[in-house]
């Protein structure tokens, strides 16, 4: 991929568009980034995108900004990271500036309240879509262990109320072990 001015404009507009139309935070933006950069542009492989998202989730700060930094850096180095961060930050900055001017009108508007409730339902649907697509990919590829890890992480965090930090660390260790197992399994098949 040629990294000229058109590439950087496309990169900026992609992150700007994703950020402008993503309601619900970084967890909603991540699957949209995956669709844009993996499925539409083919700039990143699917497995690599999952790795980049895992890094973005484990780093301190907003996940959408972390993901934009990591993806931009992966695609075009430091300048790519600056471009994607600018694209990800500008829409919320513009929207919040406009909302802050007319805050009392928005706060008291029943229509705005109904719109926000509708958006919450949409956010839940998008997150559920991501979970279902991850599960279906694991099943298609006959990867039972990632499915089990995901299910155990959900049970640990949601039912047993285990601190999310410990769930993430345990899932990371389990993921490393699974990846090593797959590499050993592939080597065994080639020999």
Tally of alpha and pi helices? 8
Tell me about the largest β-sheet.
none
Helix and strand succession? HHHHHHHH
Strands, count: 0
Concise account of the structure shown:
The chain is mainly alpha-helical and 191 residues long. The chain is 85% helix and 0% strand. The protein is built from eight helices and no strands.
How does this structure look, described?
It is a single chain. This protein is 85% helix and 0% strand. Helix 7 (144-159) packs antiparallel against helix 8 (164-190). The chain is mostly helical and 191 residues long. It has a domain at 5-108. It is globular and about 65 Å long. The protein is built from 8 helices and no strands. The longest helix is centred in the middle third of the chain and has 39 residues, at 63-101.
Provide the fold topology:
Blueprint: H1 5-20, H2 26-40, H3 46-58, H4 63-101, H5 103-108, H6 110-140, H7 144-159, H8 164-190
Helix pairs in contact: 1-2, 1-4, 2-4, 3-4, 7-8
How would you describe this structure in keywords?
191 residues, 85% helix, globular
């Amino acid at each position: 991929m040629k990294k000229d001015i058109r590439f950087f404009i496309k990169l900026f507009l992609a992150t700007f568009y994703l950020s402008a139309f993503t309601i619900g935070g970084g967890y909603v933006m991540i699957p949209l980034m995956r669709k844009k950069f993996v499925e539409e542009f083919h700039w990143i492989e699917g497995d690599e995108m999952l790795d980049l998202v895992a890094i973005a989730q484990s780093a301190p700060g907003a996940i959408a900004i972390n993901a934009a930094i990591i993806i931009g850096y992966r695609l075009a180095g430091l300048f790519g990271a600056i471009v994607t961060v600018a694209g990800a930050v500008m829409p919320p900055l513009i929207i919040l500036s406009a909302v802050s001017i007319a805050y009392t009108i928005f706060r008291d508007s029943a229509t705005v309240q109904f719109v926000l409730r509708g958006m919450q339902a949409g956010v839940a649907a998008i997150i559920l879509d991501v979970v279902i697509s991850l599960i279906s990919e694991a099943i298609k590829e006959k990867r039972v262990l990632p499915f089990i890890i995901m299910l155990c992480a959900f049970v640990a965090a949601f039912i047993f109320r285990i601190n999310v930090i410990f769930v993430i660390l345990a899932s990371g260790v389990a993921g490393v072990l699974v990846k090593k197992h797959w590499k050993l399994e592939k080597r065994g098949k080639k020999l």
